[in-house]
Amino acid sequence: MARGRMTDDPMPPPPPTGFDKSASAGFLANHMARLFEQALALAIRPLGLAPAQFMALLELWRAEGITQADLCARLDVEQATMAATLNRMQRDGLIDRRPHPQDRRAQGIWLTDRARSLQPAAEAAAAAVNGRALAGLPAADRAALLAAMAAVIRALQRD
């Protein structure tokens, strides 16, 4: 018998809070994002990449020479976080920083040949993770999920 208790009954559950995480878009999106990041990390680790680097590379493969501020705005990432990611990318031989052609105060971020050579394998790895995650959904449901996610992102970016 538990000390100070008169029965062997387990402790009663805490009273409900009214918040059901299984019905919370934020909770589920966060959980899904963590699982995607873990799967992506495993898939791109053999390439010497981390998820944050891959996220930056996706933008740089499409718009090389943009500034750190541009990357932050495009990816909704804080300056300090992006600075740390770019420092690591420069250390790893993925990017070079050079004076920006239109803004003398800024530096453009340029890809190295190594970073360019990783694009096909890195994008294929990410596509495989996405494919595995969505494999159980019919094509129409996949399209609806992606459209709904994009709509939620737009709504939150307006705030």
List the helices and strands and how they pair.
Layout: H1 25-44, H2 51-60, H3 68-75, H4 79-91, E1 95-99, E2 107-111, H5 113-134, H6 139-158
Antiparallel strand pairs: 1-2
Q: Features of this protein?
A:
single chain; about 160 residues; mainly alpha; Arc Repressor Mutant, subunit A; two-stranded antiparallel ribbon; 6 helices; elongated
Describe this structure in words.
- This protein has 159 residues and is mostly helical.
- It has a domain at 47-123: Arc Repressor Mutant, subunit A (Orthogonal Bundle), CATH 1.10.10.10.
- It contains six helices and two strands.
- The protein has a two-stranded antiparallel ribbon with strand order 1-2.
- Strand 1 (95-99) and strand 2 form a beta hairpin.
- The termini are far apart.
- The model has no long low-confidence stretch (mean pLDDT 91).
Instruction: Provide the CATH architecture of the domain at 47-123.
Output: Orthogonal Bundle
Helix/strand order: HHHHEEHH
Radius of gyration: 22 Å
The third-level CATH topology of the domain at 47-123 is: Arc Repressor Mutant, subunit A
CATH class of the domain at 47-123: Mainly Alpha
Number of separate helices: 6
The residue fraction in helices comes out at 55-70%
N-end to C-end Cα span: 54 Å
CATH superfamily of the domain at 47-123: Winged helix-like DNA-binding domain superfamily/Winged helix DNA-binding domain
Number of strand segments: 2
The biggest beta sheet reads:
2 strands, antiparallel
Q: How are the strands ordered across the major sheet?
A: 1-2
Strand content: 5-15%
Q: Low-confidence runs (pLDDT<50, min 5 residues)? A: none
Overall geometric form? elongated
Global mean pLDDT: 91
Category by helix and strand content: mainly alpha
